[in-house]
Amino acid sequence: MPEPALPTVLFVCVHNAGRSQMAAAFLTHLAGDRVRVRSAGSAPAATVNPAVVAALAEVGIDISAEVPKVLTAEAVQTSDVVITMGCGDACPVFPGKRYLDWRLTDPAGQGIDGVRPIRDEIEHRVRDLIEEIAPAVRR
Predict the structure, then answer these.
(1) Following DSSP, what letter does each residue of the chain receive, concatenated?
(2) How do residues 21-39 score in pLDDT, each as one tens digit?
(3) Is the pLDDT of residue 123 over 90?
(4) What span, in angstroms and rounded, lies between the C-alpha atoms of 13 and 87?
(5) Which of 24, 59, 74, 106 is deepest in the core (most CB within 10 A)?
(6) Among all residues, which ones are annotated catalytic?
């Protein structure tokens, strides 16, 4: 019997420098090879927010080499689940895709103390998402 295709999740925010980077990092870290993960921004920044990099480093996730990526229609089209985080109407909509909108505070301009609660909320939501789309094999 062939193995089922891995679900592909795309996280989208405006700058792909904060929320979507954290969500993609948590999903990659927690789900491993059970999910394909992408992130993008409708107007990508030049770099990932340093406070976001530091907040994730505190929980053992290194995203220091990540760079913001531009949102493309192809990225949306080839994803099963598209999770937006404040990108408004910039995300193209295709039939048959599952869309979720996570309303989260934007970490832009905030120090690490402001980013930590956002990080923790994203981790909680990502853990719930994993249980829904890619639960661990129970033995």
Answers:
(1) -PPPPPPEEEEEESSSSSHHHHHHHHHHHHHGGGSEEEEEESS--SS--HHHHHHHHHTT---TT----B--HHHHHT-SEEEESS-GGGS---TT-EEEE------TT--HHHHHHHHHHHHHHHHHHHHHHSPPPP-
(2) 999 999 999 999 999 999 9
(3) yes
(4) 5
(5) 24
(6) 13, 87, 91
